[in-house]
Amino acid sequence: MKEVFYQALEDENLxxxxxxxxxNKQDLPNAMSTAALTEKLGLHKSKIKQxxxxxxxxxIKGEGLRQGFDWLAAVNSN
Length: 78
What we know:
Elements: H1 2-10, E1 19-23, H2 34-41, E2 52-56, H3 65-77
Parallel strand pairs: 1-2
């Protein structure tokens, strides 16, 4: 997963793209937190130039989805 994410970040066509990661399954007791996912992907230690956001969500409950898409729309409107 991490390798694919970083390959996408390096793609010339995505140099200006914002990245939204939905941390799904937050309705489950053992779901990975956004902080743990950020650490696992090494996002704070990387030199990523693109804007990125990790949003906790539960697709079944519909939680977090609007927040994620609102962030993406706001980033792309600038």
